[in-house]
Every structure is written in C-alpha cells, then in structure tokens.
Structures
1.
Amino acid sequence: MAAPTAYIVEAVRTAGGRRGGRLAGWHPADMAGEVLNQLVDRTGIDPAAIDDVVMGCVSQGGEQGFQVGRGAVLASRLPESVPAVTIDRQCGSSQQAIQFAAQAVMSGTQDVVIAAGVESMTRVPMGSTGMLFAQAGLGKAKSPRQEQRYPGVQFSQFMGAEMMARKHGFTRADLDAYALESHRRAAAATERGDFAREIVALEIETPDGPAIHDRDEGIRADSTIESIGSVKLLAEGGMISAANASQICDGASGVLVVSEAALKQHGLTPLARIHTLTVSGGDPVIMLEEPLFATERALKRAGLSIDDIDLYEVNEAFALVPLAWAKHVGADPERMNVNGGAIALGHPLGASGTKLMATLVHALHRRDKRYGLQTMCEGGGIANVTIVERL
C-alpha cells in the first residue's frame, strides 16, 4: 500500500521589508495572522477545519514571545478552536514547520495543517533575547559541558562563513559577483511579475500617507560590482561583508498542507506534493556546511540525482553557501535561486523556510517544471532538505 501523501495547496509570503522600513509598523503576530487569513481566503477552506498551525520563529521574545504562533491565530480570522505551536530550528524554523505539517498529514493524525513563519527583525532584533540575559549576568549560551567538548570554540555563523569560504576555495570577488547576480535576478523577477502570485499585500502607513506594500524592499536594481565591493568587510582580512550576506528583513509566510482526504472533502487543488523530507546535523563550528551533505543524503533517499531536480532554492545566508553547495553536489547554477535570494530579497529568519517554499512552488508552475529542492544552513550545524513535485 502506498504511503499517504502530503499536498501543498497554497503558499504565500509577504514582500520583504528592510530593517526599520516599510513593515516596521506591523506587529509580528498581526503580520503572521494576515498570512493565515490569506491561506484561508485563497483556498476557500473552512478555517474551522484547520487542525494545527506550526509557526517558525527564531527570536522568541518581546512581541514574538508568549507563543507567537498562537498569537497569530488570535490576530487572524481563524476561530479560537485552531491550536498553534511555535518552533525554533534557527533559520530553518519554518522549513521544519513544513516537514512537521507533512509528517502529521502522512501519519494520518491530522488532515489540514498550516506551516508558517514570522520574524520582525526590526521590532525583535536578531540575538536580542540572548543579549538580555548576558547583560543581566544570567549565564552564557555555551554550557560547561559544551565547553568541554568544544574547548575555546566560539559558535559563530560569521566565523563559520569565513572558514567555509576558505575551505571551498572562494574569494571575495566570487562572493561579490554572486551577490550582484542575486540582485539582478530578483529585480528581473519583480519586473516580470513573477512574485505577484505568492505575495500577500499589506497596508502600511508612510510619511506620504497610506500605501500598499507588495514589492520586496531590499532589492537594489542599481547595484554594481564596484558598489558591492566597496562595502566594509565584517572581519579584517576576511571575505564576508554585509553586501554578500543576507539582508536583515521583516516578513511572514505560510504554506497550507493537506491530506488526500482533505483535498476531496474541501474541493482543493494541489500545487505540489511533498516528495522527500529530511533533516541532519553536522559540524557546529563551521556551521553552514551541512546543506551540502544533507542534500546528498536526501537525493539518495529520494532515488533521484541532482540532474533530476529542475529548480533549487538554497538560502543565501551568505553568498558562499549556495556557491559551495552547487560546487559540491554538481548542481547547475542556472537552476539555483532563479529569482534571486536572501541577499536581495532578505532573510526573515523564522519565516524564510515557508518563504522559499512559496517562491519554489510558484516558480515550478511558471516554468512548467517537475521537481524542486529546498535547503538551508541552520545554526548549530543543521540542515533541512525538502523535495517537492509540482502537480
């Protein structure tokens, strides 16, 4: 008997907002709540039929504290009967939300699950929850036993990025060239209207009055290799700069995952099916490298080769991650991040997983392609890989 299938019937995201930018006025629970509303409105499903909401969020403090997933439900038009949970797998939080939703459906325990994510990096700055404890003298993130296992080692994504660039033989020029291409692809996709189907437009207030936010704010269409190369390096003698790393971003996103029974019961049309899902851990020091090896394992599990995959979304936490990934797995760069990535579009941490899935699923439909693969590096040396098949 064939294993139960999990289907994606809708996938949406807000347009990214720059730090202190056009989405700064949106409370994260309200922003995520509007994504939930749109998933319901676009599919026409009875909101009372939703079995659960799995919300990714990294900085779970301040306005994103007190279980922001449940807060999003209460800020939406969903009934109080819809439960929610907030999860943290660092940058992969909402990609893991997709996988948890799919696992619930494939196990037969639930039929309709929303996987979503939110991060207001303006209102709840990255690392702010840990800094509050450190400033209060309430302990360190690295435990004594971790120190015994990794003596004198600092767990740092920036240090890991520099280590990885050197290990895989990339120069700053390579990273800057990739960053420029991210902006070019994102600008071209925007002008073609490629993001229109996936974007949830939000009402905002500007100095000139009310407006609609429906275009990614971080894209720099006028970028040049000279302007990117002029940005100061984050470490003396290093290769990483703010220009060849992901942008701080405000945003929310979500995917509606259902069973075959729910498709029939609610008259839903699937966009894709979840083909393969996996997660693995690796070196927490170099930290960003695990997507390379996780992808190899996922493809083997799926019975596919990298050549079978039509489009790849590899999160641009740093330019070197997709560059090293493509080099290691033998991927075609022309199929990778075809609409640009987080360097141009922003990386709203806990929202990036479902954000990338929204872009991937809709790109598969626009380009009439079959298989898509999504992966990203995550704090602590973890990586999720999700393979979907367009329907």
2.
Amino acid sequence: MRHFLVGLLALVFLTLAGGKAMAYDPENTLFMDLKDGRVVIEMRPDLAPKTVARIKELVRQHFYDGVVFHRVIAGFMAQTGDPTGTGRGGSGKKLPAEFNGEHHLRGTVSMARAADPDSADSQFFICFAPAEFLDGQYTVWGHVTEGMEFVDKIKKGDPQSGAVNNPDKIIRMQVAADVKQ
C-alpha cells in the first residue's frame, strides 16, 4: 500500500511541459520568467537547505521581480539578484557557505559571493557551460531543468567593462507551489 501511495503522490506532481512529462516537487521548483520564456529551476535543499530557504523567502517577497542580469559573460555565466543592478547590492542578509560536492555544469545555479565564503546574500548565477574551477568554492543550490535556451539568450555584458546597456531582467520569479493553475 505504501508503494502505491508513493507512486500516486508522484503522479500528482506530474506536469506536461513542452510536450514531455516531468515530475517535480512544486515546493522546491522555481519558475523564472524571462523576456524569451520560462526557466524552470529545481532547487536542492538536500545540498544547501539554508540557501534554498532564503531564496524561497526572497522569491515569495517578489524580491527578484524586475531585477536585472548585471553580469553576463558568454561561455561562462549569467549573474543576477542585485536590486541596485551594480553587482554590489543584495538583500542585506548574509548566508553561511554551504559548499557541496556538486559540479558547476551547464545549467547549474549557484550563489555569488565576495572573498569571504560566508558573504553570499541574494545574488546568484547560472552557468552557460561547465566551470569546474568553481567547484567547492560556491554554494550550488539548484539546476535549470527547462528553458536553458532562454538563459542562453540573456543579453551579454559586464559592468566592469562598461558594456551593460539596457540589461535583460527577471520579469517574475515564483515558487511553483504558489502558482495558481
């Protein structure tokens, strides 16, 4: 009977997306709407419970809605989460490092930080390509499961090079469990 209930519960979380079936946990799935389409991010509380809890808290406060991608480097990553758009801002609450054994691969979502390992706040980045040199030094907390093609279309630019003119932004970010169907 227990196996039947587990299977039934899995079916409850089954959704059709882009013509393919994908099972997900709505409480640990983010929908990030960009100008070109929706990006689905699977959050990993098993890897970084404090980080995932804080990201969900900020998402539910609409903190990320309208925030720009202030640093986007082709072949490397797209960084966002600073409400000032300068790369120096955040939510004002530092997070302890939750470094883990996950690799920085294409679609990995990880926290940005300063030199202090415990300086992550609200800024995060999505890898365009493998970046194993970051492994063990940044908190990996999720992975893009759908919509990476929309991440690829984010306008490239970096404030340090002065090449950010009208940067792309997060239109809206939501925890899947909060989305009215």
3.
Amino acid sequence: MAKIDIYTKAWCPYCVRAKGLLKRKQQSFSEIDIGSKTEKRAEMIARSGGASTVPQIFIDGKHVGGCDDLVALDRAGKLDALLGA
C-alpha cells in the first residue's frame, strides 16, 4: 500500500472530495491540517514546489497535486498504479 500524505483545511470541499476518493479506493492516508498546524503550511509549500492551495497530495513522496489532479489521474486509469492497487 502506498504512503499518502494530504495537506488539508477543515472547511475545504476539495479536501473532502480528495479524501473521499482515497477512502473509496480503500487507501489510508496521513492528513496534515494546515488550518490547525500553521507551521505545516510552509512545509507543504516547500514540498509541493510552491503550491499554496489545499489539498496538496503526495503518494510515496511524489507530489501529485490537488484534488483535480487526483481525480484526473483516476479518470485516466493511472491512480491505481500509483496506489499499488
């Protein structure tokens, strides 16, 4: 199973959608709430190469992008390979 990190904020509908997709794929993930852990925001921006919106998703250390990117990977049939499914 892949190691997934997802940077989120509690009120973010895109974060909810991305987490829902990962849950439907029966994937566990580490959620880092940058709303309550503001020091993690700088970490997210550094890891993502400058992206400052949430969610930011990493699969096995590789930056996937945000919710739209995750959904696009799934629709293209490429997400399962990244997840090791």
